[in-house]
Amino acid sequence: MMERMLSIVLLAAGALFAQPPVEYRIQRAASPITIDANLDEAAWQQASPVSAFIYNWFTAGEKEMTTAKLLWDDENLYVAFRSFDRHISAYERKRHGPVSKDDCLEIFISPNPQKVRNYYTFEINAIGTMLNRNKSDWYTGGATWEPEGVRYRSTFHGMASKDESANDREWILEMAIPLRNFAKDAVNMPPRAGDEWRLNLMRTGGKTNAQQSTWSPIPAAVHSFHSPEYFGKVIFDGGGARRTTGRGRRGFSPAVNAQDAEEGRALYNRSCTICHGPDGAAGDRAPALGAQRRYLRRTEDDLFDAIRNGIKGTLMPASPSSDLEIRKMVAFVRGLRAVAIDVNVAGDVGQGESIFFGKGNCSQCHMIRGRGGLLGPDLTNIGAERKLDHLRAALTQPKEVVPSGYKSVTVTTTGGETIRGVARNQNNFSIQVLGVDNKLHLLLRNEIRNLKVEEQSMMPAEIDKSLGKEGFANLLAFLSRQARASEASR
Ligand code: HEC
Ligand code: HEC
Description:
Distance between the termini: 63 Å
Radius of gyration: 27 Å
Bound molecules: heme C
Number of strands: 21
């Protein structure tokens, strides 16, 4: 009895500290990666960034941005960090020395979500000194650990020391960590598509502006990077490589982080609408940022530069916002231009699929890859055809004008039969109705007693309300990933 009460109290305390879990899908590397502290490979260009780092127990100074991306193949987990830093310093050169007092980037990995306390650490300072620890129940070695075959390069790799300098802007860390290091804990080796691991990415140290920032938030009261309960969720994505190829060729580099884009929208609406118009839709004095035109600036870096420094010789001013805020506005602008599959829509795709073919009733009227009904448009390629906002609106708001071919009609025949469906073809002599029975009915005028055309589409609206927040998010995530193979590999 006491024991049970105690566990209830502990559960309640756990709930108090619970943070919204951050999640990231690790895509497969679409092309080879050279470990040289240079992230110019197509694979990195196309990979999605993780969401913005959090300053968990920040005290003073300037908050500086860190971005990170992960990729995988059957051999390695690849890690890329960009650490924007105006004061870069590192002195520790001894293997396993206390590198975290220097400007330092870290990745902590739990390969099994059932055993998060089994985790492995990689801490590397700006001059390329590494410290590793292993906190697994099977590990009997000392305080430090020797992982096998890790390859990595940092921007100042091998320098005797790095002092702060006036030109400091950023440093990069690129790593390939052989997955075999995690074979004792991981459920599958190599991981299978859909496998979940937990990990956190961190930045620490340096003399000026020590950030102590992390990808997955850690409560200030916990105040330790060594808290695997707060690691983020990562999922090995099997289909990433094919989709990212398509993205790259169309000129969009990485997928847009949806949460950053949403926060970027708010920032944009605060300071940019005078010229560009609300939500970037249309402006009097500047281009509509979301319009379909040949954009001058497509890459993240170019957009970042335009917003931070302005565009010389035009009205476009430099922005006083922080780097982090600018990055979010970049995500917002890219989100305006991207089709749904380019946006890393959060949600459980598998759950979304069961809703589509199950309780959501969508497949009663829509087909995906040959499965489902005929009344509504085929949605096999919808993620590559439509923007995310369009999809969201299609599911929540009734269309003001129902597109031709989908007007709802109810026909009563002279024989007394009633047929409900959508009017596909119509002329003076006949009408073709695709009925709710999924059959095509050809009716001649003289067979029709009454033809009623309804204003409302057959497409149900307010699906966000009927499914609830989570179900709706999952459905949207599923729809956003629907693309034909030819589209995906184009
Ligand atoms: C005083 C008017 C003005 C304000 C305020 C303004 N812009 Fe601009 N912006 C412009 C003009 C004009 C251009 C087009 C410049 C050109 O012709 O290259 C532009 C271009 C851009 C571009 C480049 C588009 C492309 O692909 O080439 C981006 C991105 C952009 N603005 C974002 C922003 C953001 C974000 C803000 C708010 C922080 C902002 N702008 C505030 C006038 C403005
Ligand atoms: C009773 C039939 C019916 C059901 C059930 C139905 N739809 Fe539709 N849907 C339609 C029709 C007809 C259209 C085309 C007319 C329109 O856009 O209003 C449509 C349009 C759409 C569009 C817009 C496509 C585009 O290219 O713009 C999307 C997306 C969509 N439906 C998704 C769904 C999802 C997801 C569900 C399940 C929650 C669903 N539909 C349930 C009939 C249906």
